[in-house]
Amino acid sequence: GCVISRSTEAKRLGIKMGEPYFKVKELVKKNKVHIFSSNYALYGDLSRRVMKTLKSFSDKIEIYSIDEAFVDLSHIKEEEVENYGKEIRKRILKWTGIPTSIGIANTKTLSKVANHIAKKTKSGVVSLIDIKDIDPILEKAEVNDVWGVGKQLTKFFIKNGIHNAKQLKNISNTWIKKNSNVL
């Protein structure tokens, strides 16, 4: 088998996503990591329940993967959007038993950044809607944490002195098109 999901603790140990088990076997044993078998039918059922719960908040929803969706909250006033996110999180937990993290922003990419931050907060909800200066937040986001930046692109950016999302934001589109395969 291979690693398909990891806890924060497993990530800190250096266990990589998609890693064959035989490569991490000693690390798993040494650190007494608990391993669970996949139950795709259960995952699918829970995913459907979470997505159905999300649809009760907005009919404009884009299911991105089994455990991720983008929900249009443009019908909510900006000053109420974070509390609305907390209500979404609370209802999902109540109806499914699944703790979630919710990132709210004006673009999908920034929503993913907000979600990344939300995973580390007690409330589990972060809104970047009313943030006037996003640069300090982007400066803390490593370039490999930016949605769509994979291993090869990360290597390329780091080689060219781009280490965080703020630096990536400030690179001209012309430079990126000229020096990479990104369109």
Short descriptors:
two-stranded parallel ribbon, 47% helix, 183 residues, two-stranded antiparallel sheet, 8% strand
Q: Which structural class is indicated by helix and strand composition?
A: mainly alpha
Order of helices and strands: HHHEEHEHEHHHH
For the largest beta-sheet, the strand count, sense and barrel status come to: 2 strands, antiparallel
Shape: globular
Q: Indicate the percent of residues in helices.
A: 40-55%
- Number of DSSP strands? 4
Distance between the termini: 36 Å
Q: Please state the CA-atom Rg, rounded to the nearest Å.
A: 19 Å
Strand order of the largest sheet: 1-2
Q: Overall mean pLDDT score?
A: 91
The fraction of residues in strands falls at 5-15%
Low-pLDDT residue spans: none
Number of helices: 9
TL;DR?
With 183 residues, the protein is mainly alpha-helical. It has nine helices and four strands. The strands form two sheets. A two-stranded antiparallel sheet has the order 1-2. A two-stranded parallel sheet has the order 3-4.
Describe this structure in words.
- The protein is mainly α and 183 residues long.
- It is 47% helix and 8% strand.
- The chain has a two-stranded antiparallel ribbon.
- Strand 3, helix 5 and strand 4 (125-127) form a beta-alpha-beta unit.
- The radius of gyration is 19 Å and the shape is globular.
- The mean pLDDT is 91.
Helix and strand layout, with pairings?
Layout: H1 8-12, H2 21-30, H3 40-55, E1 61-65, E2 68-71, H4 81-96, E3 102-104, H5 108-118, E4 125-127, H6 135-140, H7 151-159, H8 165-170, H9 173-179
Parallel strand pairs: 3-4
Antiparallel strand pairs: 1-2
